[in-house]
Hints:
Helix content: 55-70%
Number of helices: 5
Order of helices and strands: HHHHH
Strand content: under 5%
Largest sheet: none
Number of strands: 0
Oligomer: single chain
Low-confidence stretches: none
Amino acid sequence: MSRTTSPxxxxxxxxxxxxxxxxxxxxLPNGPLVTTRAELDALHSHLxxxxxxLDAHAVRVGQLVPAEGDPIRAARTxxxxxxxxxxxxxxxxxxxxxGEVPEREACKAGLPEGAPELTICQRHQRTAHxxxxxxxxxxLHAPFTGLVRR
Length: 150
């Protein structure tokens, strides 16, 4: 990045991508066979941040160039779905220390595990509120991504 220009998305997004690639190359080949809750929490945080970035683009671009905004909105929806699956995987992963696997219904019961484990649920609920405002149930359950506009 040049010292005379202000930072833009083009300056930082490639670093985030490279960091994920580096993490995968270093940690997955020799790492544990089961993904830890800490890793799932970090992945969820990353997906929620990516969702926020795509949401900002979808809102701004969608008003000006609908043909560009539609695929960005579809990508935003798919990233949310990925975050939702990672959130479910977090609650299905063994608890640190005891190795106990929680019941499937634990997250639906409200506050399943308390702090600090509750952080992922709080992040998920904040994002879910935004998703409910900007996405229809049909969008969330559609098998088609909406990538063709005529």
